[in-house]
Amino acid sequence: MLLGEFLLSQKLITKEQLEAALAEQKLSGEFLGAILVRKKMVREEEMLVALSKQFRIPFISLKNQQIDWNVTARFTSSLVVDHRCLPLKEDESGITMAIVNPLDVTAISQAEKEARNTHVHLVLVSSEDMENAQNIYRRQLADKIKKLFG
Fold this sequence. Notes:
- The chain is of the alpha+beta class.
- The chain folds into two domains: 3-55; 62-149, GMP Synthetase, Chain A, domain 3.
- 56% of the residues lie in helices and 12% in strands.
- It is built from eight helices and three strands.
- It has helices spanning 3-9, 15-28, 32-38, 44-55, 69-72, 77-82, 105-115, 127-149, and strands at residues 85-91, 94-99, 120-124.
- Strands 1-2-3 form a three-stranded mixed beta sheet, with helices on both faces.
- The longest helix is centred in the C-terminal third of the chain and has 23 residues, at 127-149.
- The mean pLDDT is 93.
């Protein structure tokens, strides 16, 4: 089932809202969910809960998670910053990665490539949670650079 149909079935948007967002998507190429959230037709959390149900990917809050920054450090800053895909932890079943958009195949493909034959478990997080974690990540990178050159 397509995202728009799923959101309609969950009564999160109207048919008119979907049609308007799809028309904009044709012009912009932007993700449908991003358009719906930006236009305030759906709250981000509602969108993430719907995506979580549709794709059977857990939706979590990073505020309640312990991030293993040693695991994160094994991945490129491009994956973390540009693709908004944050490695959180590793265990015997694989690497858990936070992502804001489960439809971003480029980010997922890059995460799987960098995981090097280790299974990737995706979890959804809000843009705010991702941004906060990225800020911590950037500070840690800056500190490492200072130590190297300081």
